[in-house]
Amino acid sequence: MTTDDPAAGCCGVTHGCVFAKALLARAAACKCAGRRQAGETAVIDCRSVAAHGDCEALMASLAGSARFALRLPPSGRPMLHVQALRLQCGGLAALRSHLEAPEADVQELVARARPWEGLPWPEIVRALAAWQPRRRGTPAR
């Protein structure tokens, strides 16, 4: 990959988007995300190293807090697609609701949610666990 690639981060290194499933499901958008095709697969990369680190930290907090509620596997073990989708989409929806943010931009939500230690995690986990994926054939909200 060259440094001219818009999905490239620092020194031509790309980082896979932490909230890629939510972005592909159109549950959110992100100004730091870059989309590219890898064969027949759409890949979402993060263009910002700092934003990627913040998203990773928030995802770790979300996963740690919602592990029991979503029946997530232990750390280091892979999640099922639907578990990752519920964690990402539900987590972003719960944060947006808690922060009363009208937009669904991931980077702005992450910036507004900082520091995560002060967030009301029981309320966020309750809203996250209540999130359900849309059924096939129904329009996106």
Q: Report the sheet-strand fraction.
A: 5-15%
Radius of gyration: 15 Å
- Percentage of residues assigned to helices: 40-55%
Unreliable segments of 5+ consecutive residues? 1-13
Instruction: Give the beta-strand count.
Output: 3
Helix and strand string, N-terminal first?
Answer: EHEEHHHH
In total, how many domains does the architecture comprise? 1
Shape descriptor? globular
Number of DSSP helical runs: 5
Head-to-tail CA distance between termini: 35 Å
Task: Note the main attributes of this structure.
141 residues; mainly alpha; three-stranded antiparallel sheet; 3 strands
Give structural notes.
This protein has 141 residues and is mainly α. It has one domain. The chain is 43% helix and 10% strand. It contains 5 helices and 3 strands; from the N terminus they run βαββαααα. The chain has a 3-stranded antiparallel beta sheet with strand order 1-3-2. α2 (49-66) packs across α4 and α3 (81-99) crosses α4. The radius of gyration is 15 Å and the shape is globular. 30% of the residues are buried.
